[in-house]
Amino acid sequence: MTTNPPDSVVALLAxxxxxxxxxxxxxxxxxxxxxxxxxxxxxxxxxxxxxxxxQGVEPGDRVAQLSENRYExxxxxxxxxxxxxxxxxxHAPLTGEQAAFQIRDSGARLxxxxxxxxxxxxxxxxxxxxREIQCFGYDSCDRAIGDRPCRNLWAELPEYDExxxxxxxxxxxxxxxxxxLATILYTSGTTGEPKGVMLSNRNLxxxxxxxxxxxxxxxxxxxxxFLPLSHIFARxxxxxxxxxxxxxxxxxxARETVLADCVAVRPTxxxxxxxxxxxxxxxxxxxxxxxxxxxxxxxxxxxxxxxxSGGAALPDHVFDFFTKHGVPLLQGYGLTETSPVIxxxxxxxxxxxxxxxxxxxxxVRIAEDGEIxxxxxxxxxxxxxxxxxxxxxxxxxxxxxxxIGHLDEDGYLFxxxxxxxxxVTSSGKNIAPVYLESLLxxxxxxxxxxxxxDDRKYLxxxxxxxxxxLDAEIAASxxxxxxxxxxxxxxxxFKLFEERxxxxxxxxxxxxxxxxxxxxxxxxxxxxxxxxxxxxxxRDYIHANCRDLIEAMYSTG
Length: 557
Prior knowledge:
It contains 19 helices and 29 strands. By secondary structure, it is of the alpha/beta class. The protein folds into 3 domains: 38-176, Rossmann fold (3-Layer(aba) Sandwich); 205-379 and 387-418, Rossmann fold, CATH 3.40.50.12780; 423-554, GMP Synthetase, Chain A, domain 3 (2-Layer Sandwich). The strands form 7 sheets. A 7-stranded mixed β-sheet has the order 2-1-12-11-13-14-15, with helices on both faces. Strands 4-3-5-6-8-7 form a 6-stranded mixed β-sheet, sandwiched between helices. A hairpin with a 2-residue loop joins strand 22 and strand 23. Helix 1 packs parallel to helix 9. The longest helix is centred in the N-terminal third of the chain and has 17 residues, at 38-54.
C-alpha cells in the first residue's frame, strides 16, 4: 500500500494487514484461550473505524476511552488511527471526578466505556460532562449518564464491507502524516495538576521501530501483555511493537492471573514493572538453581527468552536473581513525554544497574546539575493547552526529564534519583530518597518505604511491612504475638525492623541513615492517590495523608 518508510501508526497497521493477513495475531481468554488472525483483527478494527465515522467523528476529534485491558481496547485504539481521531485513554482505576476532568479538559466528543462500573463513575459526575458528548459501552448496561443513554457499541457496529473498508484505510494512510496528533495522555507525575501529553504519529512510530531494533522478533514470538494499555509503556512496547513486528500478542485475563496465563500461552516476551518482577523473585527466593535450574523459566511457561522492565528503578538484587536463573531481565528508561523509550539495552549489551544506551535517533546528555536531558523524534509535541508547562520542560530542543543520572564511558545511562525528589536537609546535604528506598525494599520484610527529611535535621521513613513474610519471621523467632492486638506495636518487631534497616543502609553515608521510622499498618495504593498508575510514589499525597505520623518522628530530639 505504501513503499515509503511508515511515519504513522495507520501505515504500520496497513502494512501488517497486507503482509500477514492469515498469520496468527492475537490470543484472548474467553472461557478458553482463542486465537485471531491479522485478517480477523483487521476486519474488526475497520468495522469500528467505519462506525466512528458514522457517529460523526472527524480527523482531529478527541475520543476518550475509559476501560481495562480487553479486546475492544485494542480495536478502539487502532480504529481511531484509521478514523483520524485523537485517542484520550483514561486509566481504569481513576475516580469519576478524575475521568470527568480528562474528558472535559481534552474536549472529547465521544466516550467509550467498558463496564457498568465505569458507566457508574461517570453517571455520578454527569453534570460535569459536556451536554453534547456521546457515550457507548462495550458491555450491555441499562444505566444512563445524566440524560445520555449509554448505548451498546457492539449492537451498532456495521457489517464488514471489504470495498468500503479498504477505501477508508487507504484514505487514512494518505491523510495521516508524522506530525498528525495521535493521542493525548494525562499524566499526574508525582505532583501537580494532570497535564495532557500530546504525542504525534512520528513520536509513536519512531519510538516503536527504534525499540524493536535491538531485539530480533519473528511471527512465532508471543508477548503477554498485562500492564495497562492506557499507559504509554504497554501501548508502545506491547501494542505497537506487536503491530510493527508481526509477532503474536496475548491479553492477560487479569493482573492477578499473569503467571497462570504464562503457563497457558507460554510467552517468549514479557514487559513488566519492577514490582512485578520483584514479587516473582520473592516467590522463588528459596529455590536452588542447582536443584531446579529451570524453575524461573517454567514459572513463565517454559519458552520465555526475554523480559523487559520499565516504569521505575529495577533493584539490582532482582536483576541478579533473574540473571542467576537464566532469564534475561533488561531494564529500559523513558517517560510518557518521550513516547516513552529513551534508552534500552540490547540482548548482548546489558550492564548491571544501567538502563541501557540511547535508542537509534535519540540523544541523551547530562546537564551541569546532573539532570538527564534528551532530544529526538520521541519528544512530545507539548502539553495540551499548557504552553507554559511545555516551555518549562522543553528548552532549546532538549526535554528536561527531571531525573538525575550519569553516562559511563560507553554511553550506558545510570539513574540515581529524581531532581524534584531530592531531599535537602537543614544542614545542606543533598540526598536522593529513591536510592535509599530501593535499598530498604530489597529486604524481604519491607514492601514499601518512603524516606523523608527535606529541611529537617535527619532522615525518617514510613515503612510498610511485607506482612506474610513478617508473620513467618515472628513464628520462626518465637515471638509471642498473642499478647498484643497489633504486632507492629511489639518491641521485638520494632527491634527486628531497626536491625534490618541498619543492615540495608550500611552501605551509605552517615547523613543518609534513617534515624527514626514508623511501621505502617497499610500500604500505599493507586486508590488512595499515593501511587501513580505506574506505581510511582506521589510524595505530596503521602506527606499530606501521613502528616501526623511524620511530625511525631520529629517532635522529639
